[in-house]
Design brief:
The complex is a heterodimer of chains A (341) and B (904). In chain A, the strands form five sheets. In chain A, strands 3-2-1-4-5-7-12 form a seven-stranded parallel β-sheet, with helices on both faces. Chain A has a two-stranded parallel sheet with strand order 6-15. In chain A, helix 2 packs parallel to helix 3. With 341 residues, chain A is an alpha/beta fold. Chain A is built from twelve helices and 15 strands. In chain A, helix 3 links the parallel strand 4 and strand 5. Classes of the chains: A alpha/beta (341), B alpha/beta (904). At the A-B interface, strand 6, strand 13 and helix 8 of A face strand 35 and helix 34 of B. Chain A: One of its GO terms (cellular component) is cytoplasm.
Chain lengths: 341, 904
């Protein structure tokens, strides 16, 4: 199978490209920077460039679309340009190129309304009520993609929740970096249960979804699946596990959750008038994510995708420990989050 | 001449299909007959439903809808539905029926209803159903049409106002001159009050539907007249009709007409007094008291399902064909309907009443002077009672109770501290067929009050504290004081008799005939630690089977000698046929029993058998080595002669059993498994526990069934429901089903609980215990928790005890509970632990502890999402051992959703 993977310079995109290449698929990647994945054909380009997109899709049987603007704050127009318009461009090109299978990699936050999520399934994406520019534009992108399902093009959306693993710049390095500088507080009592996804599981699950578009087309076509490790843990346990894997001191001081949410809102406002700076230390969305429960009903995902996660959280933390033991620890503050267009 | 003609019900009333609404003359009524006819189905019989005051036929909307759905649903192959037509009238001057301006007496109302059913051509078999004063009217119709009556069903109602008994306070108020009219018709107060006492509150649209026919004062005239027609005293014009109906109902009961009583216990007007009166008139009735429902029981609980179930199970005709045909014939149904519980009580066993040994020993000069009961807590006379003296005392009290009016089947609540007086009272009551009601003080005042109201004893025998509580909380029953009282206190406590006088009255009197094996003997209340306390009914046959099973299993003979530090077993000595001794302790506080007191008791009776509760054992073990009050050599010699020792009442650890054995080195420790519903199911010895110490099984090994007891398991499905066919297949997790000759007869006035406990059980008498566990390949039972505490995870059902045991093997864990958080089917397992040292505040466990707990649970293949610590797990008051997992689960759910952390 010839597969185009967009956003392969990111942690998850790279992992997906590796899984596909390893099993013998012919993989082309598409993003602005080199993917760093061995055995694949890198095509450099941006989603906002229709000609580059069309060229990349030509000849592909399938597309796994991971590229997105994923930062927590930023210019709303940029989010829309990449996550909505870019997705539309890619879908148009895929249809024209005769692509048969399209996996839209999305996020549970597209259906997240700010309350705690306790054992819920994948609700419908809702751009009007999703919180934050990222979630709003990803919601719109997912709706666009799923609406194209039918005819020769079949589409499935997969929403991995909080992907982490060795080399992760989104969660792991930020946590480790802040903890190393003594700037990582626990929000509230740290007991809120959070579902996360070890990167290998997320990649395997996405590939499973791609395969099911081929052999269980009518089961998964047009549907969205939340994907996790199925092992929710208290947020404090996760942060402690990550810090210990990296050899840094786990967080000890606490900030009341309500205060963090308020502060997050103020910081967001401040960052809006300071364009070009790095990620804000706290946002309202992040404060909610880290102080309320977010875990999901995985039964349908497991049975429809005919897949279950192979790596447990403890195994994942063990891999992370090995990773930090064999690589230079990050000393410089994390810069701009991967803007993998 | 009508002031307002009857009208049909408008569309849009919640739950009421307007197709059922009809008008005939002055009557509005609901009737599914035309709908059934249009679908081509013919009714088996008709349910004639009569609402009370101030409601209308809207009350019966759920039944008519359910009956119609059932009748028109496709039947499974080979199955034939019974078809029930439901006709629910609005009484004249009420609901949507006409306002004629006439005042109607009870007799007229009964006659009106008869005229209506005749006009409707209702000539097939009929089941009456009534609520409130509609119950009386429906019973009037039933008494007048006994020839084609197929059954009677009632929701909170009354047919008899005992002379001298106070009219319920709310009615007294409603009847008071001035208040009456103002409360009932001028203002809608009576209507509003009735609607407001629903539990939970009625939805607004339902309340509006009830108010619909009663919007103006003129519309409410019927309400006023109805209240005025309540026969509160002998001179009332409707009193004669009420008495006629009451007597007629008793005749229906004597004819075994199928009867169903569904009762809301929280009814300020139709209290349990009236339920008890109805039960006495309809002794074969199925009775279910809904503890949390009130007067509007039809709104508070699902009554339609139980009514249909009763119709199909108990009112259904002999064969499906005769039922269809029977719609035209009369009397066919009533004659063929089966009455409940026509099951043999005691199998093939010959019945030996539990007072038989007492009779023999007391009468035999060779044994009459030997000690029967010793009470080392007492000083002076009463410390030692011989067989002859006990027999004599039992006979005096038995005859005396009969003298003061206690009859077979009457209930006698015994609120007397354990000791010789209680023992004598129990045997005296049983001997004359009075039903002893035993509720443990551990239930607390509220629990006891619920138990007393639920069982509604005719007599209450107690010591001063109990009599004072009875007085304060308004418990029912003629008061008999177990101890002498001065006249003032006697009056204040409302005491009618003193036990000494009762006994004196019985001196030399003939005893009434003995009750038989199928007569009710006792109502024992469950501990309430696994849900609200329920009364459990035992017959004489079953009690006697229990004693024989115990005696046979523990090899109790005349010379055994029995030490009982566990109150219920102190009563069993005479029935087991051996002398028994209560050690010097406060029997209601097991932690007051010392090792030396046990040794004294063993010496006093040369006992071979010791019964203790785990809490008592703990204290005995602790005091055995005490420097000042510990055991001396003579004590150790005495304890060394004990052959068998039983821990009972709550689970016990092998370590504690072993510690107890070190004090009684010659004894084989046993820890039987049972519950109030079946006091002896299985038994295991310490050696038996040690033999399976390395078995891979999850849970607590409780051994193999004892005597006639049998155990099966009904497997759990993914939703955690015990739906599997009962089986003895090893290794299958499911609900434990129990059968034994000494199993309970039934729950008391909880027909639906009986139905649930006997759901899908094999032929014969079986009971779903609510415990979950599995059998092993050698037929041993392993208990893994309560059905209500099973977690439903994405990987299937998970019983808590197995992972709890694994977690408790962690050194830093003192005690653990595993509970589920999240929605059913995807629950995550959470361990809540008491740590060593104790956590100062509840919350997430420290990392090292959490890792150790997770690893321990992973050893038994249970993934743990979170580990929480608490200073102390919430437990039941009675045993301090049964963890309140429901409470813990909801606490853990809140904490792990990001909510506040308080104490659980």
């Amino acid at each position: 199978m010839r597969v185009l993977v967009t956003g392969a310079s990111g942690l998850l995109g790279g992992a997906v490209a590796r899984v596909l290449a390893a099993r013998g698929d012919q993989v082309r990647t598409f993003q602005r920077r080199p993917s760093g994945v061995a055995g694949v054909e890198d095509v450099a380009g941006s989603l906002v460039d229709p000609r580059a997109v069309a060229a990349a899709v030509t000849g592909a049987d399938a597309v796994v679309h991971l590229a997105a603007k994923v930062s927590l704050t930023g210019d709303p127009a940029e989010f829309a340009a990449v996550n909505v318009d870019g997705t539309r461009t890619l879908l148009d090109a895929a249809e024209r190129a005769g692509v048969r299978a399209f996996v839209q990699v999305s996020s549970p936050s597209v259906a997240h309304l700010g309350d705690s999520l306790v054992g819920v399934g994948a609700g419908p994406a809702d751009p009007r009520r999703a919180r934050g520019e990222y979630a709003r534009t990803k919601a719109a992108g997912e709706l666009l993609a799923l609406a194209r399902d039918g005819g020769t093009l079949r589409v499935v959306a997969v929403r991995p929740h909080v992907v982490w693993g060795p080399g992760d710049t989104q969660l792991v390095e930020r946590v480790v970096d802040r903890a190393a500088r003594g700037r990582l507080p626990l929000l509230g009592h740290g007991a809120a249960l959070i579902d996360t996804t070890y990167v290998d599981n997320a990649a395997d699950g996405i590939v499973a979804a791609l395969d099911r578009l081929g052999d269980r087309t009518d089961v998964v076509g047009g549907r969205a699946y939340v994907l996790t490790n199925g092992e929710p843990r208290p947020v404090a346990d996760l942060l402690t596990g990550i810090c210990r894997a990296a050899g840094v001191e786990p967080p000890r001081w606490r900030v009341p959750a309500g205060l963090a949410r308020t502060a997050g809102g103020m910081v967001e406002a401040a960052w809006r008038v300071r364009p070009g700076a790095d990620e804000p230390p706290m946002t309202r969305f992040l404060a909610e994510q880290l102080s309320t429960a977010h875990w999901f009903d995985q039964r349908e995902t497991w049975s429809d995708l005919d897949w279950t996660p192979a790596t447990t959280i403890d195994e994942g933390l063990h891999h992370l420990t090995t990773h930090y033991a064999t690589t230079q620890p990050t000393t410089q503050p994390t810069t701009q989050a991967s803007n993998t267009t | 001449m009508s002031l307002r003609a009857a009208t049909s019900a408008p569309a849009g009333l919640p739950g009421l299909d307007p197709r059922f609404s009809h008008v005939r003359g002055e009557w509005h009524y609901l009737d599914n007959g035309p709908v059934l006819a249009a679908r081509g189905v013919h009714p088996t019989a008709t349910v004639l439903a009569v609402h009370g005051n101030p409601t209308w036929s809207y009350l019966w909307r759920d039944l008519i809808a359910a009956a119609t759905d059932r009748a028109t649903a496709p039947a499974a192959p080979g199955e034939v539905h019974d078809v029930w037509r439901v006709v629910a009238v609005d009484q004249l001057e009420m609901g949507l029926s006409a306002r004629t301006g006439r005042r109607r007496t009870l007799a007229e109302r009964v006659a009106d209803l008869g005229a209506f059913t005749e006009a409707l051509g209702l000539d097939g078999p009929v089941v009456t159903l009534g609520h409130d004063w509609g119950g009386v009217v429906s019973l009037g119709w039933a008494v007048d049409h006994a020839d084609r009556l197929a059954g009677v069903a009632l929701l909170n109602t009354a047919v008899h106002q005992p002379d001298g008994a106070a009219i319920p306070a709310p009615l007294r108020l409603a009847l008071a001159r001035g208040v009456h009219r103002l409360g009932t018709s001028t203002t809608p107060a009576f209507l509003e009050t009735t609607l407001a006492i629903a539990h939970p509150r009625l939805p607004d649209d339902v309340s509006r539907a009830y108010r619909l026919p009663y919007r103006s004062a003129a519309d409410r005239a019927g309400i006023e007249q109805f209240v005025a027609d309540i026969p509160v005293d002998l001179d009332h014009p409707s009193r004669a009709e009420l008495d006629r109906i009451a007597a007629g109902v008793a005749r229906l009961g004597a004819r075994d007409v199928p009867a169903l009583l569904l009762w809301g216990a929280r009814d300020p007007v139709f209290s349990d007094r009236y339920l008890d009166d109805l039960v006495s008139r309809l002794p074969g009735a199925h009775v279910h008291r809904f503890e949390h429902a009130g007067h509007l029981v039809a709104e508070d609980v699902d009554y339609a399902g139980p009514v249909l179930r009763w119709l199909e199970d108990d009112v259904r005709p002999a064969g499906p064909d005769t039922g269809r045909a029977g719609a035209g014939g009369t009397g066919a149904l009533a004659g063929s309907a089966t009455v409940s519980r026509d099951r043999p009580a005691s199998g093939t066993r010959t019945f030996r009443p539990i007072w038989a040994t007492l009779d023999e020993r007391g009468a035999d000069p060779a044994t009459a002077r030997e000690p029967a009961v010793l009470d080392l807590t007492a000083t002076g006379p009463g410390r030692e009672v011989s067989w002859g003296a006990l027999d004599h005392q039992v006979r005096r009290i038995a005859a005396g109770l009969h003298e003061v009016g206690v009859r077979r089947g009457d209930r006698v609540s015994l609120l007397v501290r354990p000791g010789p007086t209680l023992t004598a009272l129990v045997y005296a009551c049983l001997r004359i067929g009075a039903v002893v009601v035993v509720a443990d003080a551990g239930l607390g005042l509220r629990g006891l009050t619920r138990a007393q109201r639920g069982a509604w004893p005719q007599y209450l025998i107690g010591q001063t504290t109990a009599l004072a509580a009875a007085r304060a909380a308004g418990w029912p029953g003629v008061r008999i004081s177990a101890e002498p009282l001065d006249p003032v206190r006697r009056r204040v406590l409302g005491v009618e008799h003193e036990l000494v006088d009762v006994a004196r009255a019985g001196e030399g009197r003939e005893l009434p005939p003995e009750p038989g094996p199928d007569d009710a003997a006792a109502v024992l209340f469950t501990s309430g630690s696994t849900g609200p306390a329920k009364g459990v009914l035992y017959t004489h046959g079953r009690l006697s089977a229990l004693c024989e099973a115990l005696a046979a299993h523990l090899d109790v003979g005349p010379t055994t000698g029995l030490v009982t530090g566990f109150a219920p077993f102190a009563l069993l000595g005479p029935a087991l046929g051996t002398r028994s001794v209560t050690p010097d302790m406060d029997v209601s506080a097991p932690r007051t029993l010392t090792a030396r007191a046990v040794a004294d008791a063993v010496r006093a009776t040369d006992a071979r058998l010791v019964f203790l509760s785990p809490a008592a054992i703990l204290h005995v073990v602790e005091t055995a080595v005490d420097a000042d009050s510990g055991l001396d050599d003579a004590d150790r010699d005495a304890l060394g002669r004990v052959e068998t020792f039983l821990s009972t009442g709550a689970p016990i650890s092998a370590e504690l059993l072993a510690a107890a054995q070190s004090i009684m080195p010659g004894a084989e420790p046993h820890t039987p498994y049972g519950m109030t519903e079946c006091l002896l199911v299985t038994d295991v010895t310490l050696a038996g526990i040690r033999a399976v110490a390395d078995a891979p099984d999850a849970g607590v090994c409780v051994g193999r069934p004892v005597g006639s007891a049998r155990v099966l398991v009904s497997a759990l499905d993914d939703d955690g429901a015990a739906t599997g066919a009962p089986s003895d297949e090893p290794g299958v997790l499911g609900e434990v089903l129990i059968s034994a000759e000494h199993l309970k007869e039934s729950y008391d006035r909880r027909w639906l609980t009986d139905v649930a406990a006997e759901r899908d059980t094999p032929p014969g008498r079986w009971h779903r215990s609510g415990d979950v566990g599995h059998l092993d390949a050698d037929g041993r039972l392993w208990i893994e928790g309560r059905l209500a505490h099973v977690l439903t995870t994405a990987r299937g059902p998970l019983a808590p005890v197995g992972p709890e045991q694994a977690v408790e093997r962690v050194d830093a864990v003192r005690r653990a509970a595993v509970v589920g958080v999240g929605p059913a089917g995807v629950q995550q397992a959470v361990a809540v632990v008491e740590s060593l040292p104790a956590a100062r505040r509840p919350g997430l466990a420290p990392t090292a502890l959490a890792e150790a707990v997770r690893a321990a649970a992973a050893d038994v293949s249970v993934p743990i999402a979170a580990v929480l610590v608490v200073a102390e797990l919430p437990t039941d008051v009675r045993h301090n051992s049964k963890i309140d997992r429901a409470r813990l689960a909801s606490w853990a759910g809140r904490v792990l959703a990001g909510g506040r952390v308080g104490a659980p």
